[in-house]
Amino acid sequence: MADYPTSFDRDDLLKCARGELFGPGNAQLPEPPMLMMDRITDISGDGGLHGKGHVVAEFDITPDLWFFGCHFPGNPIMPGCLGLDGLWQLTGFNLGWRGWQGRGYALGVGEVKLTGMVRPDRRMLTYKVDFTKALQTRRLTMGVADGVVEADGEVIYIVKDMKVALSES
């Protein structure tokens, strides 16, 4: 494991978005407004439900977030794909946090269940990513993980078999 802290504030996440945290050409988060978290509260390479690594992060919900005005006018809801993207972002972040090299790419997801919505009256999303596999070979660097998104403590998304790879090309 690389020698990074186990929690990160918004300034740290913005450094990652600029390529300053893991170095040029390595795992990078998107910049706002596509950055889907405000802080990472815990991260590991050997914790979580399966002992293969985990990430826990939070995203503060405010009524003025960019997506509420356009999705949908008069019925504002955060697009479900943004919650999934937040989970993918965190999966790739964990691979970079491990010190593994390359740029992150979402490869797919096995199953997504949306059981609730994020409306402007919600206060906070909590993302929980639990790795089922993390591997690095000469040809492949990849993480496979399950994820949960909670809105104010209520589970609203359940995701199985997210796949993110790092590539140096």
UniProtKB/TrEMBL annotation:
Catalytic activity of the protein: a (3R)-hydroxyacyl-[ACP] = a (2E)-enoyl-[ACP] + H2O
Cellular component annotations (GO), alphabetically ordered: cytoplasm
GO biological process entries: fatty acid biosynthetic process
MF term (GO), any: (3R)-hydroxyacyl-[acyl-carrier-protein] dehydratase activity
Compartments reported by the entry: Cytoplasm
Enzyme class: lyase
EC code(s) of this entry: 4.2.1.59
Main localization of the protein described in the UniProt heading: cytoplasm
Annotated metabolic or biological route of this protein: Lipid metabolism; fatty acid biosynthesis
Highest taxon of source: Bacteria
Keywords: Cytoplasm, Fatty acid biosynthesis, Fatty acid metabolism, Isomerase, Lipid biosynthesis, Lipid metabolism, Lyase
SUPFAM superfamilies noted in UniProt: Thioesterase/thiol ester dehydrase-isomerase
Similarity field: Belongs to the thioester dehydratase family. FabA subfamily.
Assembly with partners or alone: Homodimer.
Name of the protein: 3-hydroxyacyl-[acyl-carrier-protein] dehydratase FabA
Native organism: Jannaschia rubra
